[in-house]
Amino acid sequence: MQTMFALVWNNEVRKLFCQSQRVMRVIWVAAMVGSLGALVFLVDPDDAQPHRILVDTDADTDDVFALFYLLKQDSTRFDLQAITINANGWSEAGHAINHVYDILFMMGRDDIPVGVGGEGGILPNGTILPNVGGFQPIIDQGMSTAGECRYRQAIPVAQRGRLDVNSNYGLRKAFLPQGSRRYTPLQQPTAQQVMIDAISSGPITVFLMGAHTNFAIFLMSNPHLKKNVKHVYAMGGSVRPNCPKINSSDSSGECSDIGNLYPQDSNPYAEFNIFSDPFAAYKVLHFGIPVTLIPLDATNTIPLSKSFFMEFERRQNTYEAKYSFQALKIIRDTWLSDAFHEQYCMWDSFLVGVALSIIRNSHNLYGENEFAEMQYMNITVVTSNEPYGALDGSNPLITGYSTPRFNVQKNGVHSGHVQMGMQDPFCLQKGKGKCQDGYTKEGTGEDAVRVLVATKAKPNHDNRSILGREFYKSFLHVINSPERTGRFDIRTQYPFHREFLYKPDFGKKIRGKPVVFDMDMSAGDFLALLYLLKLPVELINLKGILISSTGWATPATIDVVYDILHMMARDDIPVGLGEAFAVGQANPSFAAIGDCKYSKAIPHGSGGYLDSDTLYGLARDLPRSPRRYTTENSVKFGDPRDTDNPGLRQPSAQEVWKSIVESLDPGSKITILTNGPLTNLAQIILSENTSSLIQGVYIVGGHTGYVYDNSEGNVFTVPSNKYAEFNMFLDPLAAKEVFTSSVDIRLVPLQMQRRVSSFSTILNRMNATTQTPEVVFAQHLLSRLWRLQQEHYRYHHMDIFLGEILGAAILAGNPHLNQTFTLKPLKVLADGDITKIGEIVIDEEKGKQVTILENFNPETYYDHFVRVLGDHRQSAVLGSFHEQERMWNSPPEKMNFVHNQQV
Ligand SMILES: [Ca+2]
Ligand SMILES: [Ca+2]
User: Fold this and answer.
1) What does the pLDDT look like over 826-868, one tens digit per residue?
2) For residue 429, how far is its CA from the centre of ligand 1 (angstroms)?
3) Distance (Å) from CA 522 to ligand 2 centroid
4) Which of 36, 344, 610, 903 is most buried (CB neighbours < 10 A)?
């Protein structure tokens, strides 16, 4: 009663006050209390303090727009307290975290904490340990960050998927400045810790812009902090949308495919954010916190219309507007169909717009706001499919437990079939997909929750404007506002910023053996690359680099390769990006997505992708190359249309290989060194007429040691598999292809790599040698790997990467290494049981004769490697990012670098 009274008065008085005074720290409300007629002063707590906000984001491009829109609000009204990264959605943790740090640096907001990852797990009994990283959906979370991809596989890995999101279509490093914050292993605040800190220190509103994993884990493990969460606003789900396209509705007029997964043949109901972790979304919805949902129903009605796009193009008055528009433009230019303006919608930015407007108008009981029509609906999230209580092995909450995990009911809504992947036969029915996992479904039963739902974007009040929606206007106004604007981009941050392509001048030197290096961007591969670049060009002529994206790093990490080449003045070396999937893993009906039967062995968190993708936090010490991954493309290569700079296009591994073959001198042949899975090599061998141009292949990997001493392999995340080595395991069918081909193979197997895995030995030698920039960088990397190995069990496997350098040294063939080889008939086991996959066996009848490194002198190896890196010849032109910054702070004539070409 008293509340209602205050509310009415609030409303009236605020109207008067707001006209004269926009920002008020405290509003004193004069209220007449009953018949006493006394004048009482009340404090309105909502207006007394800024609204504290926490954002959980998957760092997709529309999340970037949303962040800008929020950061540009007056922080005395809307105060962004913390950001957490959703690591099982559209971006990879290592790229996302540095992307968000760069945005905050540009916006002058290094004060906002950002949380990512964490190594905590969930015990079989359902106990949630601290700092669960959110790399897995809750139902699949065990004690490791490696694991299956039942939902994650719906998201493309490469183009038009995580690769593009991680790099923001190539713009991230072309545009954003780089501050001092970055991901550093074991020092990075975890997502859970950042949530706990922000939420425990006062009332807060939570914006969810990705999967709900982090926030659901937070609620489940910190129920006592629920009282501080005032409201949750989430973009996601699909309740009763208007059909975005007429032809997708059937004769009844209802949408036949209301979700947005693609392909939709297994589940036409789900939207990506909710599908990425349905159980988490269910938990959030049913936790008893008020939830407002911005589903596809509403976002479908606010697409990136042509008129909005054109108006945005005209109005780019701030760095954040420029960054956002450039991203939109490259997305449009590379859109597969001509329907970009209908299909690309304002998702997360619309969420923020609607949420802030609702908060501003909090006196309205029904969520009235400027931008969206709202309606209360009773909703639940489908987490499993009927019949309930089915024990078909698909449900990790039930299968194998006498008491189901998290106390779910044996015959309840969580007990049915859980979608196993995009090709789950249970979900595939002729005509129409059957599974509803992640569907935000209306219901009348007790299992539905009353939720405020945005149903439609409101039209622009000003009907003379070309902008058809009220929010278009607000978005352009806010992002172009001169207040709280970005300070600079990478170009304007420095007075003399300039970009060069460095190309070496080897004069009349005779070039040595043509070599192609195929790497998967694991830590040791970068050291092997530095070593190859330091070998005299008369000995080794490094013609190109191929990236196997099926190993320890995700494809967007290709930028680190470009940066190393730039540092070493080798911007002339082409870099080709390989296939996203191991052989047989791409979805047969939609090759952009695929399964993770082998890649599931790589941890997502510490010691895995998170660390490789950031080169253990050290990638940012490298100078920034003008060459980088980009989505620029051209019709010439089969793309839908030319972009503005088609020449910048990222070549594929196959294209680079072909161009090298075409440039070969008559009679010469190429030697290939592979330091990762054999995905690219298999493709090369299968391609026409080129395998005869291969002199031989040095393969780092494979385990043959067990034949002598029963020693085990190294695929530690698949304990049942005892003898395989990662590079064979990660693409066994490719390995099989190579090991049944006619190509001459020299194998540098695991047991030989293990002989050179002493961090102390190599670091001691490095301390005693000339400190070239490349020695300094290698020292930083190696000492970090060593320290991590000593400090945390998650890093027990760091010597895997130290041993990787050996292949390059064997290829160089220094006679003092005393290397000896033996010939054995080998076969790679590629099919059948997961316990055997990737194993190498000796098969006298069917095996291929392979030359195996049998012995060498490890002491000489360490000496040799360190001496090559410490040689002042063929050394770096730009030792570090700091050195590059010094260059950008000095006028050009004072610098004496040799550069061939300004870009
Ligand atoms: Ca998002
Ligand atoms: Ca490797």
Assistant:
1) 999 999 899 999 999 999 999 999 999 999 999 999 999 999 9
2) 30
3) 5
4) 610
